[in-house]
Specification:
The chain is mainly alpha-helical. It has helices spanning 2-9, 13-24, 31-44, 46-65, 70-88, 91-107, 113-128, 146-154, 157-180, 184-190, 196-210, 220-242, 246-258, 260-273, 275-279; strands spanning 134-137, 140-143.
């Protein structure tokens, strides 16, 4: 089904605009709108991608008027990241750009009072209905105020957008490979590895945030996203190299959900030590 959608989107500008516009109207499926923008940009360049983007921005603009800027962020990031990948063929550079865009999204909360107010209202209603929320504090459980919970949730705003940006671009690149370069995306993703200098910067910022240095402490989840993706790429590479099967990949993604710090540390370790190279079988 998704391949057919990609083929239809690439059959002409009108078809690509139609797909991006229609899926942009569906909140649960608007990621496909961003993926189409990414696919067109990857294949035909930013000018063609920009024309599709303009139409896709119509439903995204309606969402913005309702207080949700995420679709606009997603579409603009799809165009920018796809163009960078098209011109540089460098996933490390793309992850740097995604992190910067995620940080811009995080900072945008200061000019989105209506969105913050909506989140606050939802949390307030949940707590008023007796759904008590608690936070750990010095080893003890204490009842959290509405402001505490809102602040905790909004810490993930930038990282949430990083994930959206990554999904749109990965899906667009996957579609491009299916149509024009079978197996190309698999090879790219398996080789994904952060630039050690960028990984070192992220690690320094992450540690400073964990030590409570403001405002870095509110951006810690975002600093974890690129190494998390690096760790998952490494696992994909190892599973494919050893032909371990899909079950190991399922376990890896469960670990990413349940034990994300371990995958993040793996990503940092790979960026510094190039674990892939060390795992390669020695030539006889």
């Amino acid at each position: 089904m998704l391949r057919g959608l990609a083929e239809y989107s690439m059959s002409g500008r009108r078809q690509a605009v139609t797909v991006a516009l229609l899926f942009g109207l569906l909140p649960m499926f608007n990621l496909l709108s961003g993926a189409v923008v990414a696919l067109v940009t990857l294949r035909k360049g930013w000018q063609e991608g920009f024309l599709v983007l303009l139409w896709a921005l119509l439903p995204a603009g309606l969402q913005l008027l309702l207080g949700d800027a995420s679709p606009v962020f997603m579409l603009c990031a799809a165009l920018l990241t796809a163009q960078l990948l098209r011109t540089s063929s460098s996933w490390p550079k793309v992850l740097m750009l995604m992190t910067a865009l995620g940080l811009l999204a995080q900072l945008s909360l200061s000019v989105q009072p209506s969105y913050v107010a909506q989140v606050t209202q939802v949390i307030d209603q949940m707590m008023a209905e007796g759904k008590t929320l608690q936070l750990a504090d010095a080893g003890q459980m204490s009842s959290a105020t509405v402001a505490d919970v809102v602040a905790m949730l909004l810490q993930f705003y930038g990282s949430y957008h990083f994930v959206i940006f990554a999904v749109c671009l990965i899906l667009g690149r996957h579609w491009q490979a299916l149509l024009y370069n079978p197996g190309g995306f698999r090879q790219e993703f398996h080789a994904l590895r952060l630039d050690p200098r960028f990984a070192g910067l992220l690690l320094a910022l992450l540690l400073a945030g964990e030590l409570g240095l403001a405002p870095l402490n509110a951006w810690v989840p975002l600093f974890c996203m690129a190494p998390l993706l690096n760790g998952l790429a490494l696992i994909h590479h190892v599973v494919a190299q050893r032909k371990s099967g899909m079950n190991w990949l399922i376990l890896a993604y469960l670990a990413a959900l349940l034990m994300a710090p371990a995958i993040i540390l793996l990503g940092f370790a790979d960026s510094f030590a190039n674990i892939r190279k060390r795992l390669q079988p020695e030539a006889k």
